[in-house]
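Figure 2 data, in text form.
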Amino acid sequence: MGSQDNTSSRKVATHWDLDEEKDLIAFLSTRKSEAGDTMSFKAHIFTEAAKHLNTTYPTPKGTPKSQSSCKTKWTALKRNYTIVKDIKALSGFAWNDEHGVSVTPETSGAWDTYSKAHPQSKPYSSKGFPHFYAIEEMMPSVAKG
């Protein structure tokens, strides 16, 4: 039994840069009426998005976009939107769209407690979320009463 070369069976990751993410969001925004209240698109919309992105960006880093990679990216973007929305709603923290939460010596203890309870929020202590407003425009408004 000889050793096998597994390099050909490794899947190359799909790389997303900021412009590609913006373009995905813009494309999906034009189809938001088909997504329902949870902004969950059907597979054929992600297939169309992948075709659009592969035409717009014909030489991507990594593999070309696919239905699956577009769906995965959209799911991650929605999750990050929700994380940032929750952070922005917190009392006592200042938010900066470019740099995230402005953690000061006075707020560092509270931020440490929050980020331990919500580990997915941790990266936003030092980075913003450039897609927040574009995704917010797509989300259904919730009536408050």
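Caption note: The first helix runs from residue 18 to 29.
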